[in-house]
Structure formats: C-alpha cells, structure tokens
Write a structure and sequence with these properties.
Blueprint (H helix, E strand, L loop, with lengths): L3 E4 L2 E4 L10 H5 L2 E9 L2 E2 L2 H14 L8 H14 L5 E8 L16 E8 L5 H6 L1 E5 L20 H13 L3 E5 L5 E4 L3 E6 L2 E3 L11 H12 L4 E2 L5 H5 L3 E6 L3 E8 L2 E2 L7 H16 L1
Parallel strand pairs: 7-8, 7-14, 11-12
Antiparallel strand pairs: 1-2, 1-6, 3-4, 3-5, 5-6, 8-9, 10-11, 10-13, 13-14, 14-15
Length: about 290
C-alpha cells in the first residue's frame, strides 16, 4: 500500500502528492517545518513540536491556516492511516503559490503538508562505538541576520557544512558561530560532560532549541546532574570527559573524536550511556 501524504486536509498517494512549482517554499525556502518522532504509535512531544512550528511561522509572519489542535489531529490521523508505529513525521508549512518575486503578499493559501515514513536512524554501531565528527569551516547563520531558532525550509547553511563532513568521511559536523563559539551540529545539538557535570551551548550562541535537547536537560537534572549553558569553544570539546549529540533521529549518540582528536578516552562514556538509558525509559513512560 502506498503511503499517504496530507496536503491541506486531503490525503494523497505518495506518488501523487504535489505542490505548485510557483510555491514560495520551493522558490525561496519560504516556509517552516518540524521533524517529529513517533514511538509505538504515539507521537513524542507533539505539543512542544507544534508550539515550535507556530513560533517559527509567527517569526516570519506566516499564518498557518489551522489551529494547533487541528494540526495535532491531522498528524495523528496521518500516522494512523499509514499504519506506522515507529516513524518519522515531517510537518511542512509553505508560504504558498505566488509570483516570481519575493513579496510574500503576492502568495495565497499556505500549504500544510504532513509526511510520515519509516525512521532512518544512525547505525547501531555508532551508539556502541561513538561518532567521529569534524569542525566545519562553514559558520552557523548569525542570529542577527536570520535567527536559527526559526526552523525554516532554507537549510543551505547546514547543508554546506554537511557537504564538508561528507567529503571528510564523517556523518556529522560541528558548526561554530561568527564569534568562534560552539553552536551546534548540522542536525543535532551538542553536549559535553566534564567532572560529572553537563555543558551545552546557550540559545544566544545561535542554536535551534531542540526538543530532544530540552528533554535531556530535564532528565539529567532529575537524575542529579548539574547542567550549564555557557559559551563554549573548541577547547571545551577537546578537554571534555565525554561528548554526545541530541536530536529527533539521533536521540542521544556519543561523540568520541573531533577533528581526529580523541575526546576523553575515545570511547562512549558512562554518563552518556546512562542518559541514553534514562531517555529511552522516558520514551516508554511518555
């Protein structure tokens, strides 16, 4: 059976799900999106993702033609129709069809699209052995130009950094901001562990406020860990006892090497392993 894609209240076969070539989401990356996980048929942190979707839309003056509740119901129904239990969900809102010009006032009828599909995870070996990553030359978009908290359809900044990683033979790339502070990776937030405490870059460093990041801070705090959000440099990564990434697809994945240099003893650390265990328990109880 072909997967169904939701577009503006209708379900279409995957092969027939289309938008206009004049849609400003395609022409200019004018739109917002969310990537969401479903575990055992239940959407994880749905309210938080919807809130971030609407916040991103408001930041670019894009009015979503549905209420939060209607979007939530459409997500759950699309997942159910496709018979998916463990899945990845992509919710996209574009500016809609317009002219070959930038003026968003020339666009009509924003498109609300919901795609559900099988989740593509990091291979299990990376959870056991850890990731090697590099520092990209591509700097994270400066918040004074375009705030990275807006989860927009224009991901070219991240893509350019990911190309660097592909060329270097690694799966993730650490991005610094214009001041040289650690921001985030191309698709994940970053944490370090030092002397039993957790550190992660602040929002002011120009990061996306990851939903998984927030959950990890919550469960770590409840487990008795102290969590700090200072400006961080590469020095802090190189001298960390442990390092890990968090993200919708990644969950919590250890990093054992940066730019060819071992982090800690070069193996996934005990704090990372415990937090992953606690995170998966959290999923089961949510």
């Amino acid at each position: 059976m072909s997967l169904k894609v939701y577009i503006n209240g209708q379900l279409y076969d995957k092969e027939k799900a289309m938008v206009s070539v004049f849609d400003h989401g395609l022409l200019y990356g004018d739109g917002v999106f969310e990537g969401i996980r479903a575990y055992h048929g239940k959407v994880f942190k749905l309210e938080a993702h919807i809130e971030r979707l609407f916040s991103s839309a408001k930041a670019i003056m894009l009015e979503i033609p549905m209420t939060r509740q209607q979007v939530a119901e459409a997500i759950v129904n699309t997942l159910k129709v496709n018979g998916l239990s463990d899945a990845y969900i992509r919710v996209v809102v574009t500016r809609g069809v317009g002219t070959l010009g930038l003026d968003p006032r020339k666009c009509s009828h924003p498109q609300v699209i919901i795609i559900t599909d099988a989740i593509a995870l990091y291979p299990e070996e990376y959870y056991e052995k850890g990731l090697d990553i590099i520092t990209g030359a591509t700097r994270r978009t400066d918040p004074s130009a375009l705030n990275p908290r807006i989860k927009s359809l224009n991901y070219l900044n991240n893509i350019l950094a990911r190309i660097e990683g592909t060329n270097a033979g690694v799966m993730e790339v650490l991005m610094l901001n214009s001041q040289g502070f650690v921001a985030e990776c191309t698709g994940d937030n970053i944490f370090t562990v030092k002397n039993g405490d957790l550190y992660t870059p602040p929002v002011s460093a120009g990061i996306l406020i990851g939903v998984t990041r927030m959950v990890v801070i919550e469960i770590a705090t409840k487990a008795g860990y102290k969590v700090y959000e200072p400006n961080m440099t590469l020095y802090d990564i190189h001298n960390a006892d442990e390092c890990f990434l968090t993200g919708t697809a990644a969950e919590i994945i250890p990093v054992v090497k940066l730019d060819g240099r071992h982090i800690g003893d070069g193996k996934p650390g005990p704090v990372t392993k415990e937090l992953l265990r606690l995170f998966r328990q959290y999923i089961q109880s949510s």
